Amino acid sequence: MSVVNLIAFNRKIPVKFIKFTRELQLLTNFKNIRCISTSTYTSQIRNDDIPVHIFDRNTKHLQRERAASATDVNLYDYLKDEIGYRLADRVFDIKRKFKLAADIGCSRGYVSKHITPDSVEELILCDSSKANLDSIKVKDGLKIRKQILDEENIHFEPNSLDLVVSSLNLHWVNDLPGAFKRILNSLKQDGVFLASVFGGDTLYELRSSLQLAEIERRGGLSPHISPFTEVRDIGSLLSRAGFTMLTIDTDEIVITYPSMFELMWDLKGMAESNAATNRVIHLHRGTQFAAAAIYQELYGKYDPETGKSTVPATFQIINMLGWKPHPKQPKPVERGTGEVSLKDLYKLNEIIREVKKVKTDDDQKN
């Protein structure tokens, strides 16, 4: 797992912090809290075939349109730009030229602007926002098609695509198992699916601060951060959909902000705020200030040289790769055919040398 610290230099608005009450100071023993989780939804998705309608897709569409038409939209691209670049780099790692590919939920082209004609011949750009599609620029020589598409209802001709990519988009889909199955159906045999989504540890600092503030101020709590998919769920969902040769890994990107309020403002500018969820999301002003104070106390850092305080925000990125089955793909050997026991792994170098020696002797005899 790689940890990259990115500084959002554009967020330098000074904020005055309120003083802590004794009750809030008692909460500092939660310094290492990472997950007061809202995993009910993900467990339901994992165990049931019936989709759970957590997100309002119409609200999400309006949210994206508003963010895309904002005059300062470029100000909020820093995180999605970074993840899009990393996902495009994974496409280049596959030594193959893809004839037809699709970028599902392409947004402002965070992945597609890095794709070259040497790796993809034709690319279908898909997004629910026309404003996003109109703003995309790609490299010269790359053939493109633009298509209005809701990720909840992915539809392509069966066995028509060689590659499907999606960057930071599928975590807003209610029926994730169904989306994976439709993507598999659209791929040709030995086709590739590459995607990145936010993972369960994303914004754990903000989540825990809001929940602790609500407990202190309101005597109870409600979820204000959208539920994210867990790493353990992605593998099982891809396998159930029918993908093979899975590769799943995670990255952690930590971005620092002057305070919790700049973080929440940037999430809104990224069209990643909680407004699209089917739940009451009102936060009382007193709870917000209490949460900001808790955030600063539990996770904040003070720089004595500049005299400024900052707070970190962690974004966990789950990267997934799956292949549509093909008869010529490598297959695992049958159980019981292994020649080396796991208990002998500590002397693996000796075993390899012995195997090479035996093969050399056999070659000399022949």
Care to describe what's here?
Residues 103-194 form the Methyltransferase type domain. Keywords: Methyltransferase, Transferase. This is Arginine-hydroxylase NDUFAF5, mitochondrial. InterPro entries: Malonyl-ACP_OMT, Methyltransf_11, SAM-dependent_MTases_sf. One of its GO terms (molecular function) is S-adenosylmethionine-dependent methyltransferase activity. Helix content is 34%, strand content 22%. The radius of gyration is 24 Å and the shape is globular. It is built from eleven helices and nine strands. Residues 1-33 and 35-48 have low confidence and may be disordered. It has one domain (2-341): 3-Layer(aba) Sandwich (Rossmann fold). The longest helix is centred in the last third of the chain and has 18 residues, at 348-365. Strand 8 (301-303) and strand 9 form a beta hairpin. 37% of the residues are buried. Helix 7 (204-218) crosses helix 10. The protein starts with a strand and ends with a helix. It has helices spanning 22-25, 40-47, 57-68, 78-93, 130-134, 176-186, 204-218, 231-241, 260-269, 285-299, 348-365, and strands spanning 2-7, 98-104, 120-127, 143-148, 161-167, 187-198, 244-257, 301-303, 308-323. It is of the alpha/beta class. Strands 1, 2, 3, 4, 5, 6, 7, 8 and 9 form a nine-stranded mixed beta sheet that branches.
Concise synopsis of the structure shown:
This protein has eleven helices and nine strands. The chain is an alpha/beta fold. The longest helix has 18 residues.
Structure characteristics:
disordered N terminus, Rossmann fold, single chain, 11 helices, alpha/beta, globular, 9 strands, nine-stranded mixed β-sheet, 366 residues
